[in-house]
Amino acid sequence: MKALILFGHGARDIRWREPFDRLKVLWTEQNPGTLVELAFLEMMQPSLEDAVATLSQQGADSIMIVPVFFGQGGHLRNDFPILLDACQQKYPQIQLSATPAVGEDETILQAIVEFGIKRL
After folding, report:
1. pLDDT (tens digit, 9 = 90+) per residue, 61-100?
2. Fold assignment, 2-119
3. Labelling 51: which of 10, 34, 58, 103 has CA 20 to 30 A away?
4. How do the domains of the chain map onto residue ranges?
């Protein structure tokens, strides 16, 4: 069974995660047959490992991790691979893979341009 993890940085202010919660709801409404969980690098729960554990318990054997970051900064270049490797070591029966940061996708960049245009 395939699953998805929407992976964000995390913040001290709990309100910061509200768009992530909405994103999870939107994903679930539009893709009801695919499991989805949120995970955060720091300061918020669940952690990446906790999200992988939850999806594993629900029967996932293939998990795509989508970093909901604007770019591939130090966290994604340095910290994320270590976390991903630790999860793969702990859950060798699950195929874990990751996309580039969503903010590096041309479609996302164009959506931001269109957002700005609508507000001018």
Report:
1. 999 999 999 988 889 999 999 999 999 999 999 999 999 9
2. Rossmann fold (3.40.50)
3. 103
4. 2-119
